[in-house]
Amino acid sequence: MTEYTIMDSSPSFHRRAPDDPSDSPENMVVPDHALPHISFRTPSHGTGTSGAGSSTGSMAGENPTTLHPAMHLSTITPPQPVEPHEMMTPDPNARYIHGDQVHQDCIPKENMVFATEEEGYAFYMQYARAAGFGSKKHKNKAMSRVYACSRQGSSEFYKEAEKRKRGKMSKRIGCMASVKLKLRGKEWFYERVELEHNHTLNPDPCEVKHMRSHKNKHPVMMDYVDGLQHSGVSPNATVNVLTELHGDYGHMLMNARDLENRRAANLRKEQVDDVKKLVTFFNECRAQNPKFYSDIDYDSEGVVKNIFWSHASCQANYAEFKDVVTFDTTYRSNFYRMPLGMFVGSNHHLQNVIFGFALVGDETEETFEWVFRTFQRCMEGKDPICILTDQDQAMANAIRRVFLETIHRLCRWHMLNKHTVELNKLYYLHKGLEEKLLTAVNHPLTPLEFENAWKEMVTEHGLQNDPTLRGLYEHRASWIAAYFKGIFCGTMTSTQRSESTNRMDPPDTKTNYHLEHQLGRIYTRAVFKKYQDAYFAATSFRTKNCSQHLSIPI
Length: 554
What we know:
By secondary structure, this protein is α+β, with helices and mostly antiparallel strands. The protein has helices at residues 84-87, 117-131, 205-208, 219-230, 235-246, 256-271, 274-288, 312-320, 365-378, 393-402, 412-417, 420-429, 433-442, 447-461, 467-474, 476-479, 514-522, 525-538; strands spanning 4-6, 13-15, 40-42, 46-48, 113-114, 135-140, 144-149, 178-184, 187-194, 293-298, 304-310, 324-328, 340-346, 352-360, 386-389, 407-410. A seven-stranded mixed beta sheet has the order 10-11-14-13-12-15-16, sandwiched between helices. A five-stranded antiparallel beta sheet has the order 5-9-8-7-6, covered by helices on one side. It has a two-stranded antiparallel ribbon with strand order 1-2. Helix 9 packs parallel to helix 10 (393-402) and helix 13 (433-442) packs antiparallel against helix 14. It is elongated, with a radius of gyration of 41 Å. The chain starts with a strand and ends in a 16-residue tail after the last helix.
């Protein structure tokens, strides 16, 4: 194979030809400063080549002229040679200064006068950006300021692993470049200016934008970035917009990481004193409308535990449509992961109306009792006729203690969804069970008819002792619609009911009966549609010809 030898007399690489020259890639002589394709050998992958000739490789104990299936031919290109000056250790005594790209009027000079301290600092920052080095505020005294290169000072480079705070090393190497700004009367001037650095400078804009002191934090640009982030613009789209504004990505004095840090900082800023901000918002709502109601529950350490609020319109809706209320805590907020409970009802258009909101710290019996009592105070002690919840024992206990006259009903969807796995197994083993179960649950039967239909179903399939069906049957009085015939529930059988939108134009009648026309004027469109569907189902009979001698018992 090709050999590389570093000669003592020169730092350059020289290739030495072997004693037995050959045309094979392994023994190819390569002249200096040439970049040929070379062959390589690895124990596990065989030999590859990219030259004119070809070579083969063999595994141990095999015929060397036979190519092993695991071997393959690959082509590689050697890396570009490194220039000698790039390999040399920098001279510690070398000094570097700004280049010709810095205008003479932008170079700090002794006795330069500034009206304010900020002007003197901004001038040095502008020079540092153009020259290609980072800067920092080094000393801050009563009558003077010192601004220095960010690589000023020294640091302990080698520390034990357990004492290191960061994995990366410090870049401070004792650079002495700095300016001293001093106060004289009412003006500031540069008393001392040192422009020489002991390290190379990087005036390339692509390098400067990574320096911490030169991040573009112009207030107008930052407000624009904050507006994009607040509007939900993705980080990649934000970078594209800023690149378009600056003309090129290299000219943009911030990178994608800076934008992510800006977003995180804004989120932290919004989360500071969030409880105070919420209380302030509630006070503003109360100032606009005295009927706005809110209450906050604190724990023993003064930390917010539960929050409840209700607008004036919510309370007005409850005064009209308090017959049935649903309460559900399935939804959780994004950041704090607190369950959000909502009191929801149904209006005369069969649409959802919200009565109140509650953010709860947990789902314990004590928490639910506080929420229900707060809701009761908000609604001036008027309890709902019926409340619909999921099958939560802590919630049920709190309802019994707070709403003494309210009928508690369980959500039909939660009851069946809780046993989805077990029911699906039964549906698979017993054909026709699903249709009979849903018919008995959803059909508006009387309690006696429901119990007979249930008994017939379990007897037919031999499921009298099935624990899932027995559990559903034992709680039948809490979730089967047949047991709530005397209670108006606004067609609400689940806490997951969907909203409906209705037009307000006069409904179309399907018959000439006076009753239908009268109900069309009295009922809302959604309720009248429910009546028409029920009327159509009740009068849908199929007529058959019977014998004239058929007697019908009376």
